[in-house]
Known about the structure:
Elements: E1 9-12, H1 18-29, E2 33-37, H2 52-61, E3 65-69, H3 76-90, E4 95-97, H4 113-141, E5 144-149, H5 152-156, H6 162-182, E6 187-194, H7 207-210, H8 219-225, E7 235-239, E8 242-245, H9 263-268, H10 270-274, H11 285-295
Parallel strand pairs: 1-2, 1-4, 2-3, 4-5, 5-6, 6-7
Antiparallel strand pairs: 7-8
The structure holds 1,4-dihydronicotinamide adenine dinucleotide.
The site of 1,4-dihydronicotinamide adenine dinucleotide has 32 residues, from helix 1 and helix 4.
Amino acid sequence: MTIGFEGRVAVVTGAGNGLGRAYALELARRGAKVVVNDLGGARDGSAGQNNAEIVVDEIRNAGGEAIFNTGSVTDEEAMNAMIAETRAMWGRVDILINNAGILRDKSFAKMTIADFRQIVDVHLMGAAICTKAVWDLMREQNYGRILMTTSATGLYGNFGQANYGAAKLGLVGFMNSLGIEGQKSNIHVNTIAPAAATRMTEDILPPEVLAKLGPETVVPAALYLVSEDAPNRATIAAGGGGFERAHITLTRGIIVGDGELTPEIVGERFETISSRDGEIVPDNVGAQSAMVFGQI
Length: 296
Ligand code: NAI
């Protein structure tokens, strides 16, 4: 199996640094024309240097094709303009990697609603805005590959990241429905949960762990998930040479049936409700209700 991107046009948001940069470089090396989007700025979203143009230079110096865009993923007009410009230049958009992100880590007690809203705006609304900007075009083309970026925090939780975790799991929910809607137009939507040494994690993970977590260790999963052979609606964790798949499961639970329905019953049988024997991964809400109503 060889994965190539010749003739494909890819947009990578937040590609001035870290993971986005690594995705953009490898997509271009494998033949894609790449739009390197980045607003610039520091890790918390405050003002700072923008490296998008530097990444474009790197790609061009290596013989690839790329343009940069400095709009914010939260700016609907700017993202629509970016896609219109890309279309005018290269005729299509095959791949969108929603990667841009910032952190505002604090315990929930110290977090303001502004901190919460800012994170949801950039990660969740930013991905929705960029996806909306390419959606009709991908439907017209009858081809599209979209990648969301979640996090172990969204999937499993982390102290100090209630805002980030909420936004990041929202992206998995976004993928789950969008992948169903896109299927008939050959649009596949997947999600990556990366672990990589970037400025985002430089003071969160110990140095000996960071040494093994170069962004290039996440690239293989991200590129497979936006390739022609990509699955649809998969969440893949990647980093340091490890690759895993995350599922949202449903236990068999209990059926109380016509018996008395009380909170005590739920409490008394909580262990059985939680038992993972025979749990399933429902493919959609229909499959979930079929199992539950089927048992009833
Ligand atoms: P990074 O800080 O190196 O890169 C993020 C990039 O997004 C920056 O270049 C920044 O300027 C850009 N950006 C921020 N706000 C933007 C906006 N509104 N519009 C356009 N660009 C914007 O961080 P890293 O680690 O490469 O993160 C990439 C993605 O991976 C993020 O979504 C992050 O939440 C996610 N992630 C990273 C993990 C890691 O271990 N590094 C773990 C889990 C998730």
